[in-house]
Amino acid sequence: PPINPAVPLAVVDPRRPIPAVPDGYAAVIRTFGPACHVAMGTVQLPHPIGEFSEFKVHFDLRDAFSRVFDRIDKASAWGLLHDFGGCFCCRGVRGKPNKMSLHSFAIAVDLNTTFNPMTTAPTQAAFDPANPYVFTLYHPVVLAFKAEGFMWGGGFKNRHDAMHFQYAINC
């Protein structure tokens, strides 16, 4: 749904700690507020990903996202990032338009989209240096996100979405 100007954006205390990872869609709403009406924060990337040097996330997750990208940089894995597919986007889940995507809460990001299409096939576990932009269970980028509590879409049970990282489980 479009953004409703009658619904106020959340007001947050900048000293609030990073929330626990929500378990389930109802917990996402309790933790982050209504879809499409979120308080935004900016994440400055250590280096650009394509043309992006910063992006907007839910205010409460700006430190978590920043730490993920700092981990990637410190692991000398920045060259494994090819393209930035986005974070905040007010839309329904692909194939389920009545359920709002976690991108609508600015708690999910898509990376290396051209190399990690949504599929029903399981993703291999081992990192393959011959295909550095393809995310796998032990890819350094996936490990950096998991270290900060994010769930990787390549591990979804039915639809594998290897480009996708979200700060929520069981959604």
Question: How would you describe this structure to a colleague?
Answer:
- A four-stranded antiparallel beta sheet has the order 3-6-8-7, with helices on one face.
- The model is unreliable at 1-12 (pLDDT under 50).
- The two termini are 19 Å apart.
- Helix content is 17%, strand content 21%.
- It is globular, with a radius of gyration of 16 Å.
- It is an alpha+beta fold and 171 residues long.
- It has helices at residues 25-32, 62-74, 140-147, and strands at 40-49, 52-58, 84-86, 92-93, 96-100, 108-111, 151-152, 164-166.
- The chain is built from three helices and eight strands; from the N terminus they run H-E-E-H-E-E-E-E-H-E-E.
Q: Rg from C-alpha positions?
A: 16 Å
Q: What is the topology, as strand order, of the major beta sheet?
A: 3-6-8-7
Sheet-strand content, in percent, reads: 15-25%
Which residues sit in consecutive blocks of at least 5 with pLDDT less than 50?
1-12
Shape: globular
Mean pLDDT score: 89
End-to-end separation in angstroms reads: 19 Å
Largest sheet: 4 strands, antiparallel
Extended strand count: 8
Return the string of H and E elements.
HEEHEEEEHEE
Structural class: alpha+beta
Instruction: Count the DSSP helices.
Output: 3
User: Percent range for helical residues?
Assistant: 10-25%
Structure summary:
The chain has 171 residues and is of the alpha+beta class. It has helices spanning 25-32, 62-74, 140-147, and strands spanning 40-49, 52-58, 84-86, 92-93, 96-100, 108-111, 151-152, 164-166.
